[in-house]
Amino acid sequence: MDDQQAWKATYLMRGDKHMNRVEKATECPKCGSNELGKGMHSGYASMAPAERFGLGSKIIYIICTHCGFIVEGYVEQPKRFKKR
Q1: H-helix or E-strand spanning residue 7
Q2: What keyword terms does UniProt attach to this protein (predicted)?
């Protein structure tokens, strides 16, 4: 499975209709491995709000430790992105 197919598999698995109840990732959609790890971007690689200057948040990733595919990513502090 190439990266495009893996993205489609992830989208179909979690698509828009399921975004209110995303399930915890347990398997890599690219290679099928269930060996997942956690990593993060922080410091200068943090995510910042687009509309205003302010503190950002670390980006947390769930990564397949077999093939390296990023299964999911999210910000650690989503409240920093709410409109004021």
Answers
A1: helix 3-14
A2: Membrane, Transmembrane, Transmembrane helix
